[in-house]
Specification:
heterodimer; A: 111 residues; mainly beta; B: 112 residues; 0% helix
Amino acid sequence: EAQVTQNPRYLITVTGKKLTVTCSQNMNHEYMSWYRQDPGLGLRQIYYSMNVEVTDKGDVPEGYKVSRKEKRNFPLILESPSPNQTSLYFCASRSMNTEAFFGQGTRLTVV
Amino acid sequence: GQQLNQSPQSMFIQEGEDVSMNCTSSSIFNTWLWYKQDPGEGPVLLIALYKAGELTSNGRLTAQFGITRKDSFLNISASIPSDVGIYFCAGRQSSNTGKLIFGQGTTLQVKP
């Protein structure tokens, strides 16, 4: 079954404690992206990757890092989370011939 | 970053009613997409539009790519309770590898 798998689904953490949200896809897609969803703002792109070792900033990259060491994985790293990063996060992947396929989301709360 | 203007923000309708929502931009887009997000889930693609003027249906859903390339519309006919969710429009301005830009979403509630 085609999937984009995010972990964890829910996370409550404290300010400043480094965390990683993992994302893995089994469709051999070249492109992967991270979005955050906030009420009234829709989905905003954080970072994207066009292939292994190729990443670039989206619209709201501050406070986030990513890496793409393998084609299937695209982890999102928050080195020092702050309360304004409390949000719903989505990973998505696509190929040249398909549109974005989203994971189930990770709800992050930073206290 | 640029965003699309999606309206209405929310709708509360009776089961059986038709629904219309739209997305507009000041810029031209080459691709328009409509996604639906069920509660607790990620967005799922409903309809993709690639040509100005294109009208595409998916069951009770119909979407159109505006002639000006600056807008798109989604209609849902004869709504049912499982239509509840958040509907997002998304557009892509450049090539097939270009970034997707999303609207703010339309929250739909259906009263049985």
